[in-house]
Write a structure and sequence with these properties.
CATH class of the largest domain: Alpha Beta
GO molecular function: glycerate kinase activity
Keywords: Pyruvate
Radius of gyration: 22 Å
Protein name: Hydroxypyruvate reductase
CATH architecture of the largest domain: 3-Layer(aba) Sandwich
CATH topology of the largest domain: Rossmann fold
CATH superfamily of the largest domain: Glycerate kinase, MOFRL-like N-terminal domain
Pfam families: DUF4147, MOFRL
Organism: Halogeometricum limi
Distance between the termini: 44 Å
Strand order of the largest sheet: 6-5-4-7-8-9
Shape: globular
Helix content: 25-40%
Length: 450
């Protein structure tokens, strides 16, 4: 479990409340807490959420998978299952060490050679799985990148270049993964197909709006409803210049020359069950409880906010202003929370990420006494080393600051602007990921407090 700390100014109770909500939201989805709440052993029964698996039916119990929360999930599984685990490989950006499960490195958000080697160990472990093998598949956000298995004819450098182009394009996660699933062997149900006829139990921490199992971590244990044609359409829709080998593979697949990823009804999923153990709403519910304990009315606006970060910020600011002026949807003092996955279409050469850009845009729009904060639950916003930021009406106040903010937004350069104003939230890698978390805190007006 990572030590969570914040490096941001908290001059008012509203700032303190915003940070407390974010801190408790992340704590609620840390793997140790999530797995221990959902997974237990009762005699020979392995209980996972609302299902029970009879361990006496199996000769081997294996743990495979990974992602940003992979190491923490592995720790928790070792604590619960101990020597019942016969082997395992879990890949994470910052792997620790385990007694029963090997921890191996992989990079995020762009895949690495280390990740390819780590993924090969998973393939080797599953190569002789049979009907009496129980596989616990750790499926958490970030696994799409940290566990790369390039398909035939696609080199790692080709996969890296394609991933980088997709990340900068503004494509949403479903579109990005439609491409990645058709360039890799474990994604898009590939892990389930490799493990068959073993019994596979997916332990899922969702970082995807709507918890689509085919999209989380590119769906290694779920049917893939996308096609080679879909992947090609993503490249064309965003005008992406990708390596020739990538386009060639997708075109061959679209012509029927290559096998498709396994679809719903495929026999590969006959003995597969996936359990979503935590998601963005889990985190937001904890944040709401924190706000209420601090004396605020609180509302989860949505756990499914998506689209351009700078535009989503305007809507959130409008809600905060409405609360301050009319008392709708809540009367101040109040807190509004949201989550989801916003995107940034990169046009400039600056530093930032969706949450930093969200906060910069919010700072330009705020016309009332409110605090707005946003962070990526994994502790790293976009390609930066900060989690997010916290702003108020004074952040971009004045002609000079407004001009600098506008320029920073145009150049996708939110980080320096917010850093210079002591607005950054720093946590370091949190060891989990359920995507973006946002909070707007509106205090009662001076007249209301009299």
């Amino acid at each position: 479990m990572h030590d969570l700390s914040f490096d941001a100014e908290t001059p008012t109770s509203a700032h303190e409340t915003a940070l407390a909500c974010l801190l408790d939201a992340v704590a609620a989805v840390l793997p140790d807490r999530v797995v221990r709440d959902a997974v237990s052993v009762d005699g020979d029964g392995l209980v996972v959420a609302d299902a029970t698996y009879d361990l006496s039916d199996f000769d081997r119990l294996l743990v495979v998978g990974g992602g940003k929360a992979g190491d923490g999930v592995a720790d928790a599984l070792e604590a619960v299952l101990g020597d019942r685990i016969d082997g395992g490989v879990v890949v994470a950006p910052e792997p620790g060490r385990g007694d029963r499960i090997r921890r191996l490195p992989g990079a995020h958000p762009v895949p690495s050679a280390e990740g390819v080697e780590s993924a090969e160990r998973i393939v080797e472990l599953l190569s002789d799985a049979d009907e009496r093998t129980l596989v616990l598949a750790v499926v958490t956000g970030g696994a799409s990148a940290v566990i790369p298995t390039p398909a035939d004819g696609v080199s790692l450098s080709d996969l890296q270049a394609t991933t980088d182009a997709l990340l900068k394009s503004g494509a949403h996660i479903g579109e990005l993964n439609a491409v990645r699933k058709h360039l890799s062997t474990l994604k898009g149900g590939g892990l389930a197909r490799l493990a068959a006829p073993a019994t596979v139990v997916g332990l899922v921490l969702s970082d995807v709006v709507g918890n689509d199992l085919g999209t989380i971590a590119s769906g290694p244990t779920a049917p893939d409803e996308t096609t080679y044609d879909d992947a090609l359409s993503v490249l064309d829709r965003y005008g992406l210049d990708v390596p020739e080998s990538v386009r060639t593979r997708l075109e061959r697949g679209a012509r029927g020359e290559l096998d498709e990823t396994p679809k719903p009804g495929d026999a590969a999923f006959d003995r597969v069950t996936n359990h979503v153990l935590a998601d963005g709403h889990t985190a937001l519910s904890a944040a709401r409880e924190t706000a209420e304990q601090r004396g605020y009315d609180a509302l989860v606006l949505s756990s499914r906010v998506r689209g351009e970060a700078r535009e989503a910020a305007k809507t959130h600011v409008a809600v905060a202003e409405e609360m301050a002026v009319t008392g709708d949807p809540l009367s101040a003092p109040a807190v509004v929370l949201s989550g989801g996955e916003c995107t940034v279409t990169v046009r400039g050469e600056g530093e930032g990420g969706p949450n930093l850009e969200f906060c910069l845009s919010a700072a330009r729009e705020l016309g009332t006494d409110a605090v707005v904060a946003a962070m990526d639950s994994d502790g790293e916003d976009g390609g930066t080393t900060v989690a997010g930021a916290m702003v108020d009406a004074s952040t971009a106040e004045g002609i000079t600051a407004e001009r600098e903010a506008a320029t920073a937004l145009a150049e996708n350069d939110a980080l320096p602007f917010l850093r210079n104003r002591d607005c950054l939230i720093r946590t370091g890698p949190t060891g989990t990921n359920v995507n973006d978390l946002r909070v707007a805190v509106v205090e009662a007006s001076a007249d209301d407090r009299v």
